[in-house]
Structures are given as C-alpha cells and as structure tokens.
Amino acid sequence: DQSVCAPLPVLGRDVSVPLVTGGTVTYAALDYAASAPALQRVWDDVAAYAPYYGSVHRGAGYLSQLSTDLFENARKTVAAFLDCREEDQVVFTRSTTDSLNLLAAALPADCQVFVFETEHHASLLPWRDARVTVLDAPRTPQQAVGTLERALADRDPHGPALVCVTGASNVTGELWPVRELAEAAHAHGARVVLDAAQLAPHHPVSVRDLGVDWVAFSGHKLYAPFGSGVLAGRADWLRAAEPYLAGGGASRRVTRRTDGGVDVDWHESAARHEAGSPNVIGAYSIASACKSLTEAGFDTLVAREQYLVRRVREGLAGIPEVKVLSLFGDDAPRVGVLSFVVEGWNSSHFAAALSAEYGIGVRDGLFCAHPLVRTLLGGDPGTQGECGAPEAAPGERSLNAIRVSFGAGTPDEHVERFVRAVG
Ligand code: PMP
C-alpha cells in the first residue's frame, strides 16, 4: 500500500542540513504534529494571489473586493471540508488555541464543562473560568464513553453544558470515539466541541457524521502555515456572546451616547468574533489546503499514512529498549503520531542525537499535555517550561518522551531512516 500514491509535494523536501559527523543530509521533517510543512500547492496558490492582496471588508478598490471575495469563499470551502450544517458559522481565528479560547469566552452563564485530563493544554485550560469537571484518563475508548456518561448523569440536566473532546491525541496519535462521546453528551443535553488539531490533517472530519456542535483546528498543522485557524459550528452561542475581541469589523453600528459613553451594535455573523483586519492569506491558505487534501482523496492519504504507521510500529517493536506510549493499547488505531521512550536514554538527548547524527527532526518533551504524559509515564514530569523537557541526568529514567509524527508529505525514506536510526 505504500504505492497507493506518492507523498504530496511540500516545501522543504529538498532542504539539506549539516550533520555532526560532517557532510549534509536531506532534512527528514518528522514533527508534523507540531507544524506540518506547507503543501507546495498552498504555497503556489498564495504566491499567485499575493500581487492581488488587499484589505478585506475595508476598501472599495478592485483588489479589496477580490480579497473580500476570497476570504468569504474560504469560509465556504472550510464549511464544505468539514461537512458543516447549513446554519453553522465558520469563524477564522489564529489557531486551535485561539478557537477554543473564543468558545470558552462565548459559553452561556453557568455552563458546565467536561473535559478529559488527557487533553492538550489548549483544550484543557481555556475553561477554567467555567464550572469544569476534569475526567480521569480512560484506558479504553469504551471507558471514555462510560466515564463521560457517569459524569453527565450527575449534572443538572436543565443548565447548559459543553464536552470538549479530542479527535486524535497529539501524544499517542490514538483516535478517540468522537461519535460515541457526542451521542452520550447529547443524550444528556450537553454540547460538544471537537479539538481536531491532530485529526483534520489525517482524517476526513464530518461535523454531521460525528454529530459534534463545533470543530476547532489549526492551519499550520493542515499544511497551511500562515497563522490561521478555524472554529466552525453552531451559531447560537456565538451570536449571543460578547465579541471575543472588540473593534472594527465586529461592529455594525457605533454611536456616541449623550452621557459621553459609546453604544455598539455587533454583527451576528462570524465577523462578530473577527474584529480587526482579517488574515486573508491565512484563510486563503487554509482553503487551498482543504481543497488539496480533498482532491488528493482522504482514502488514499489515510491508506498511505497507515502504511507508514505500520512501518514505524514494526520497526520500533523490534527494539527492546523502546516503549511506545498508548492509553488504549498498542494496537489501537492512530494517526501518524507516536510517542515513545528509550530505556537508558534521556529523551531530549535522544531527540538531539536524531537531529545531529541523522538529520531527523522529531519533538521531545511533554507536548503541552502534562497530565497525559504523567499518566503514560507513571511519574511527575516536572514543571520546567510549558511545553518543554525537564532535565534528567544521562541514564536516568525519562520523564519526558520523544514524538515522531508524519503525514501527507512524508516520503517512505524519512520513516525508514528514522527506524534505522532508533535501532
Ligand atoms: N490541540 C491539539 C490536540 C494539538 O496537538 C495542538 C497543537 N499541538 C493544539 C490543540 C493547539 O494548536 P495551536 O498551537 O495551533 O493553537
């Protein structure tokens, strides 16, 4: 199945990096989960548009009109990519973190929030001003559903509630039972937001099929690295909320009161939460990435990526010192994201050696998911650096891990080099 298709062309595929041993090697970018390289097609689309760049919703000139059209059409492309409902809104944000903070700021009064401790900090932390229930890490997908059902059964069924779930873990790559969690939430009158930061680049996401109320993802993980993200979903809570940012673009009419204050009538469309000049390149590049992935076909992309996942798993399984981290078991379905520790090695030193000796770029550390990494490694990973790696002496047990991640642009050779290097 490796021959299902060639990798999609991405930027940086010919970049040479120096090795500590002398000489150079083609860089093997195996850190897609942090930021994926831009698709060549996204880059070409942006370059073709760049001369026509103009302000969005803020000019009468031809190029402003063109940019406004591209920006508004990008919403439609994203809505189609996510298979949104007719009435859903697509809000352009800076990132997944921004999207989830936006939703957190738009929660109705007294909203209860339910979230697993295994979430990325972007999904775990924005709700801290609400009534949050943090759920224990499940060890099977079924247990996740059971844990959520029990927590929801105890809540006041009349008040608003939100469940925040991840589609694919940024640490283990494991897929979460999103549809089942959404059904459980809805059965108890709660709504669901899906953190699709690690799911959308690897898997088709259908808001309708999954039955989620909102989806958040980041452009830079979806091969469109221009500082943009998306929050898509139900309009009612977003419309009822104060704008996330106050400013031009969000306001429909602003008037001076006789007492000297200012009155404002906010837009009800997505623009309500997009104050300030929009990032049209960011939105356009996300739309271009959505189209490219759709045209390449997720069936083909998933088949190819799963071949690479198998290669990494088989390769690592043959190395006794390596322990792959998983919540749901070694055979659980996952996207192209795997974390592991190597006995006798400090993970940071190991990752540094992969870079210096083999030109392989992976990630080491705690992956902005401290409670999850703590559960997986069975220890306190310490507190140094928000997403960074606590120091351990050489030979000490690792309290951080190494993550390898890949996707649509990864050639087989990168994965083969990685497996050889670890071995
Ligand atoms: N959620 C998950 C699952 C992630 O992996 C990440 C990024 N590592 C985020 C949220 C946050 O994304 P961003 O940094 O683009 O806001």
Automatic annotation (TrEMBL):
Q: Which InterPro entries match?
A: Aminotrans_V_dom, PyrdxlP-dep_Trfase, PyrdxlP-dep_Trfase_major, PyrdxlP-dep_Trfase_small
Name a Pfam family for this protein.
Aminotran_5
List the cofactors.
pyridoxal 5'-phosphate
Q: Which residues form the Aminotransferase class V domain?
A: 30-418
Q: Which UniProt keywords apply?
A: Aminotransferase, Pyridoxal phosphate, Transferase
Report which superkingdom the organism of origin falls in: Bacteria
A GO term for molecular function: transaminase activity
**Full protein name:** Aminotransferase class V-fold PLP-dependent enzyme
- Cite the source lineage: Bacteria, Bacillati, Actinomycetota, Actinomycetes, Kitasatosporales
